[in-house]
Amino acid sequence: MSNNKTEGRALTFSILKYNPLNKDEKATFVEYQVTETIGMTVFIALNIIRETKDADLSFDFVCRAGICGSCGMVINGKPLLACRTLTADYPDGHIQLMPMPAFELIRDLSVNTGKWMDNMSQRVESWIHTNEEHDITALERPVDPDIADETFELDRCIECGLCVSSCATALMRPDFVGPAGLNRVARFQIDPHDNRTDADYYELIGDDDGIFGCMSLMACEDHCPKELPLQEKIAYLRRKLVGQR
Amino acid sequence: MPVRPAQHYSMGGIRTNKTGESQKLKGLFSCGEAACWDMHGFNRLGGNSVSEAVVSGMIVGRYFTDYCLSHDTNIDTSIIHDAITKQADYIDEILNRPEGEDIFEIKKRMQEIMDEKVGIFRNGDDLQSAVDELQELLTRSKKASVKSKIKSGNPELEEAYRVPKMLKLAICVAHGANQRTESRGAHYREDYLKRDDANWLKRTLTAWPDENATLPEVSYEEIDIMTMELPPAFRGYGAKGMTIEHEDSAKRQKEVDEIKKRLEKEGKDRFEIQDALMPYDLPLNYKDKNERIGVGHE
Q1: What residues of chain A lie within 8 A of the CB of B286, using their CB?
Q2: Which one in A70, A105, B133, B219 has a CA-CA gap of 20 to 30 Å to A61?
Q3: Which of the four pLDDT bands, split at 50, 70 and 90, describes residue A4?
């Protein structure tokens, strides 16, 4: 990739550092210089910074490939996955990193998305609700392939939290179920294995902390790294559940 | 987009018996990629990790449930306390090292060694030098100091705690590969191109009875061809004639063929033949015949 014109540039990372457990400490931006390499992502740069400049810098990652959803952060004002963000996309070489809002801050760029997602899963009862006993040797009830596709499409959510941190309602209402939560409800609402009715879903999310809290700003869908049809699903759920009022 | 090979699956894990329980520690269950449960052979093929997760999850999961339901646990809390104290003391010891090795450098070097010397094409010289240097790294890693002395959210402390364990695993892989003077599945030796069933049809087991040692204790578990329903043979991968046969392979194949022929003549179905060749049991009704479209239960 000799045509990568930005290789060798001096990049300046300005990273918010703060340890909420240390009461005396103030949040500050710390600057780090990194020389750009071919195909460099923000994730690679962060590892270089940690290994060579600041062993104390806290950020999360696991897979490096946009699957695990651990490395969400605010990059030059936009919530993005660090592993899928190329440094070459920043022409002036200045990259500012902040932790995602709406989640409990662990330290520096680390936030506790796991805790939030756990609460959300319990809140929307993220499991198949059925009383049917299935004999494992019997044929499974067939599912229309289009409906299976639609269910699996929404199952592609990696729980990275980018949608939540870009959602204005989530920032104003800490108890808002969030785009990820509404997507989860939509997933079970489509799944024919789940016997819950619209009235049941209304009980779960039929208020301003649920489906009626969404202001349709669409930032969730703009930032979803999996390009899930969040707006369409939220609009559909709202239309369904408004009839339950 | 740079493309390169990389390790992405572990062949090997905690040695278990067929219920997924450790052979050494009662009540410790392991399944999927974390276990050495013998679902797959010595090669990593597409779909291994998924099928292992699904199949062993279902079977081992059930055995584990049964185990929990049939065993009362009565754990002396002082054992838990002692184990936690030991780890807490170890973390304090790391934090108190005034200055020493850079753990990131050690980890990076480990990655380079594993990539260059214990990768896809292996040979005795490289493997030996890998084992030697990894042992040095393990010794050095225990002298690593960390710059920040806080206990929470301290990535360098996490590395100082974990890299020595990673090194032990790397040594198990490199040392085991060095001893295994044959090529088998994903283990390819440039100096031993053939698969040697006569001498190497056995599992490599490693253990660390002395936690301060830099080499694991290696033992081998023989694999009995005479109990197999499908004895080792050429399966169409690679060139023919690259196997040093075990004498039991042909013997068992003959036996299998005879049993099959006899039972088929007696009108036995595939389940009865399976039972005669290699009987096995499963929890619940997992062995019942499955319903199939248009055929009924078969």
Answers
A1: 136
A2: B133
A3: low
Full domain range(s) for residue B7? 1-74
Mean pLDDT to the nearest integer, B48-54? 88
Contact B102, A53 (CB under 8 A): no
* Judgement on whether residues B99 and B164 belong to the same structural domain of the protein: yes
Strands B195-196 and B243-244: parallel
Q: How far is CA A198 from CA A72, A185, A193, A237, B70, in A?
A: 33, 11, 14, 9, 41
The DSSP secondary-structure symbol of B184 reads B
* Interchain pair A56, B285: CB under 8 A: no
Q: How many CB atoms lie within 10 A of CB A215?
A: 11
Residues 6 or more apart from A235 whose CB is under 8 A from it? A216
* Best of B7, B156, B285 to mutate (most A CBs within 10 Å, chain A): B156
Query: Which CATH superfamily is A4-110 part of?
Result: Beta-grasp domain (3.10.20.30)
% of chain A beyond a pLDDT of 70? 98
Whether residue B215 is found in the same domain as residue B267: no
- Looking at every residue in chain B, the average pLDDT score rounds to 93
Checking if the pLDDT of A74 tops 80, the result is yes
Residue spans of beta strands (DSSP E) within B91-212: 121-122, 188-189, 195-196, 202-207
Say whether both B161 and B79 belong to one domain: yes
Give the model confidence (pLDDT) of B71-96 as tens digits. 988 889 999 999 999 999 999 999 99
Q: List chain A residues with CB under 8 Å of B49.
A: none
Mean residue pLDDT of chain A comes to 94
Closest Cβ opposite residue B293 in set A38, A58, A139: A139
* Third-level CATH fold of A112-128+141-244: Fumarate Reductase Iron-sulfur Protein; Chain B, domain 2 (1.10.1060)
Same domain assignment for residues B99 and B190: yes
**pLDDT score for A16:** 97
Min Cα separation B126/chain A (Å): 27
Query: Taking CA A68 as the corner, what is the angle to CA A34 and CA A119, rounded to the nearest 5 degrees?
Result: 120
Same domain, residue pair B154 and B190 = yes
Q: Where do we find the tokens 């030098």?
A: B129
DSSP reduced 3-state for B138: helix
Question: Which regions of A82-210 does DSSP assign to beta strands (E)?
Answer: 94-98, 105-107, 110-111
Sequence spans of domains, chain A: 4-110, 112-128+141-244
Contact between chains at B155 and A56 (C-beta distance less than 8 A): yes
The domain total for chain B is 3
Q: Output the pTM of the full model.
A: 0.86
Mean pLDDT value across residues B37-45: 84
Which of A62-66, A182-186, B227-231 is least confident?
A62-66
Report DSSP letters for A204-227, one per residue.
Answer: HH-STTTGGG-----HHHHH-TT-
Residue A66 has what pLDDT?
92
